[in-house]
Amino acid sequence: MSESLKVLLVDDDPALRGMVAFALESEGYEVDEAESQTTAKAAFENFEYPIVVLDMGMPPHEHTTKEGVDVLNWIGIYHPMTLVIVLTGQDAQATSYVVLKEGAFDFLEKPISESALVLAVKRATLFYQQNQKLRTDEGIQKMQINAPIGEGVKPVRNQAEEKMLRQILADTNFNVHESARRLGLKRENVYYLIKKYNIERPEYEGQ
User: Residues bearing 4-aspartylphosphate (predicted)?
Assistant: First the structure.
């Protein structure tokens, strides 16, 4: 990891928070913890977190995804450069569709393994660093300042995400399996992003 990033961990389960914090701190990350929507929002008053690990089911609606989705939406509006990795024990298929649609960077189903979590955070770190470089190299900071009020900079993050995806698809001759491996994503997530950005398979010679 080229630089140490601080991660905000949002989960009402202290045992899980302890496990996740230990795994990430062992990899050189700093970890702050929050146990609710309220404390998660309060944490952002003191620091602009590049990465958030967010549980979907928290009190007072721990049996639904409401609290997690509310936090995800709030981050998307007020901290759109923050990458959110979602954890859930809810219906995986339905939840993954909702959270990816709402702008989550990644999705992990409980029970999670330390290795899968660390891989997801490292992938988010790489993307965040590349995104920061893109903003600097291509003057996206200026675009951010000039963005219409109410739009924020979510379109900028989408632009960086789309550019990275297109580059990897081009490098692999549109091999989704290999692209998913390089990105550390599931193939269905890559297909979702291809559809999201209306990326069409190019015609290669000999095809």
Answer: 55
